Amino acid sequence: MPLLRMERITKTFPGVVANDRIDLAVDRGEIHALLGENGSGKTTLMNALYGLHRPDSGRILLDGAEVRFSSPMDAIAAGIGMVHQHFMLVPPLTVVENIVLGLKTANAPRSPLLDLRTAAARVRELAATYGLDIDTGAQIWQLPVGAQQRVEILKALYRDADLLILDEPTAVLAPSEVRHLIGVLRGLAASGKAVIFISHKLNEVMEVADRISVLRGGRLAGTVAAAETDPAELARLMVGRDIVPPRRREGRAGDPVLRIEALRVRDDRGLRAVDVVGFSLSSGEILGIAGVDGNGQKELTEAIAGVRAIESGALDLTGLAPSRGERFRNIGHVTEDRHHTGLLMSFPLWENLALKSSDRPPFGSPLWLRVDAMRRATARAIETFSIRAQGPDSPVSALSGGNQQKLVLARELGLRPRLLLAAQPTRGLDVGATEYIHQRLLAARDEGMAILLVSTELDEVLALSDRVLVMYEGRAMGLVDAGEATRETVGMMMAGMERHEAAVQGGT
Amino acid sequence: MSGAAAARGLQALRATSISLAAIALALAASAVLILLAGADPVAAYWALLQGAVGDGFALGNTLARTTPLIFTGLAVAFAFRCNLLNIGAEGQLYAGALASVVIGIYLTGLPSVLHIALSIAGGFLAGAAWGGLAGYLRAARGINEIISTIMLNFVAIFFVSYLVHGPLAEPPGFFHQTAMVAETARLPVIYPKSDLSVAIFLAVAVALLTAYVLWRTPFGLKLRAVGESTGTARFSGVPVNRYVFGAMSVSGGLAGLAGTTEMIGGQYRLLDFFSPGYGFDGIAVAFLGRSDPIGVVFAAFLFAALRVGANHMQRTTGLPTSLILVIQGMVILFILGVAVLEWYRRRQRG
Q: What is the pLDDT of residues A271-324, one digit of tens each?
């Protein structure tokens, strides 16, 4: 008998069927991947399981007995633990304080005092059992992301979870940390626990899962055993058609448009975030910056864009920035966080598209906007970038993430910049939108645009870039030509190895 | 064009219906209070209406009172579009009044049109300087504009008080007031029995101009962009601090015009504490008008009508005029309630 059985789960929200009669069964000792694009219903299904909302119809059975959860507390009590993508930890508290937060003291439920020593001992024991190496006395803010994730897992285990749900757990990890996580999950499964692993990355689920359930458009597209499938089949199940990998033509790099020498930049806390010896970027070239999130990529792009002061060093934009206004028009910037630095969410599409060029023809003049011209241009952009929107007047917030990103791209490419900074251009996007944005970036490069592509997705960097620069703790670990860059060497450099060391270890 | 206009129209209609619903709910709730006070709500509201718009004199008074509220309402709304809370319209109004009166009294021998124009320009600039000071402190020093504008109110109000007690007092100085502004600086009166001058047309014209600036100029687009998301504005090359300063300056200037039109449109001289709180009512007016210049015009009219009608209501029904403050307060509360409901619904969907 499976540990968990979900039968014909249906959940509708106004206007959408988020889950349509989905069946899911997970055994003890199994790592079960839930694969699907954004909006395919993974989160809704897991929220139903975790008691965050109640399905309209269908049953949830644990060990054969039907359960009804009205809140996550019920789910936790029934032995379900969830590790959210965005960690639910309190930064100034210690690891053990976070773990016991909200629990009564186990050995003395009536005691008003917190027995942290006993708790710490139990946490250490759990940590040792499952290979979750952690310092229980450390404060959360001091810990790297990977360690914070281990705290989340320990939190669930401490609450005696038999079924662990991990929502996109690898999104924030370096390749070596991913390997460690997979080891931990295998250990958990071996000890009889069940793991649900939510992801949209094909290779990853192939590697980690025993069985894979694929959701598409709110329905179960199929459940397959990992040993009997391949990424191509999974992609077909997930998208409903074959996926064409981006094809990169041989590039012809032109004149350099960006030169960096001994650049140092500080982050918002005033700590040095970038300390790069130097590199240059030429027109008709994509320079990929690989690295785990938070290793200075953000500060580097912001310094180039002109929204962050440089501490020292040279940033030569070869005439792209004769004035402040020119700089923002000559450098396109697909920002990392489209909600907070890319778009005006409650404003109509046309105002967003016009934002950077509202005071000059064809969109306006210093004194007035040419609304008609803007709306026509927006209608054209909707067409050429196949943005799914009602029209130029609908607010950006009504668009899906992928379509919002296409709008950003439409605006930034529409300015015909000589340099494009593309920071995490496909983060959170589904396969179809990602494919589209990749094609657009490659087309822009073929037309002679210089593109700095920052991505934490190694596959994306490798597929698009002519050269790859790996950043680790603000430093450039090395610059590799596309032909020589392999997953292994770049992955090791992302974990802090210099290029020549990585080459030796990786065997290239 | 028609599509954009239609979309904006629809949005405006929604905003209007919310404001109207809040007004209706506030009147209904106040009716209960009137009943509790032992009076007849229908009679009371009828008296209120009669007093506000019952005849030419009443309407003239209401419109005269609408004028400063339009300006202060616009001032608060304009700043709010840039996500700034200007609580200092009262002080900026005093600054504007002071400049206009000084120009009106001491700059004599000019043709009337020029004198009026200079007085208006002086009032706008003085208000803009006073608002811009708070804007500068916010942009350059990160000082919260809510606090600074509240504080600057006191400075402006008591500085004017000092002036009318001494340096600017009308000889021989028995009364704490300035001399009257020259005839050439006064705005033409429309309805002699009331205080109604052509200032009301100026107010409506400025409201239309404000709407145009906000929605049809690059300046307005960038200003609203700063209000919506500083991050997006900054990453798009908008000099955020300059826009914060600019928004507060224009906002102060608009409030200054309220002082100007009070001075050269009816009162003609500066008195101690001459404003019955137009600057503070402007906050409520902007809120009821949903920070839309056209909405502000109607909200200002409503608030003026309530205030003017209140006296007649008191005379005929014996209900205290302070009931009007209750109604005004409830309108705001109900709008807040709707806003919270909307926010909650959005969150539920998201």
A: 899 998 899 999 999 999 998 888 899 999 999 999 999 999 998 888 888 888
Domain spans of chain B, in order of start: 66-305
Q: Is A130 on the interface with B (CB under 8 A)?
A: no
Q: What residues have CB less than 8 Å from A183, skipping those under 6 apart?
A: A131
Residue B233 C-alpha, separation from nearest chain A C-alpha, in angstroms: 7
Asked if B216 has any chain A CB less than 8 Å from its own CB, the reply is yes
Q: Tell me which residue range forms the domain holding A460.
A: 256-338+420-506
Q: Which of A206, A239, A272 is the last residue of a domain?
A: A239
- Between CA B221 and CA B224 the distance in angstroms is 5
Note the maximum CA span of chain A. Answer: 74
For residue A253, what are its two tokens? Answer: 């790099």
Q: Across the beta sheet with A272-282, what order do the strands follow? A: A272-282, A256-266, A312-316
For the entire predicted model, the pTM comes to 0.82
What six digits make up the tokens of A238? Answer: 């997930």
pLDDT number for residue A275: 93
Query: What is the tally of structural domains in chain A?
Result: 2
Closest partner CB to B236 (pick from A328, A366, A391): A328
Contacts with B, A 280-319, CB within 8 Å = 305-307
CA distance to B177, B185, B189, B196, B252, per residue, from B267 (Å): 11, 12, 12, 11, 21
Enumerate the residues of chain A whose CB falls inside 8 A of the CB of residue B232.
340-344, 355
Same domain (yes/no): A118, A193: yes
Which residues contact residue A303 at a Cβ distance below 8 angstroms, ignoring those fewer than 6 apart? Answer: A263, A265, A274, A309, A310, A315
ipTM metric? 0.88
Residue among A13, A356, A365 whose CB faces B237 most closely: A356
Task: Confirm or reject contact between B228 and chain A (CB < 8 A).
Answer: yes
CB A66 within 8 Å of CB A56: no
Which residues of chain A have a CB within 8 Å of the CB of B226? none
Considering CB atoms only, which of B221, B225, B232 is closest to A369?
A: B221
Q: Is the domain of A294 the same as that of A205?
A: no
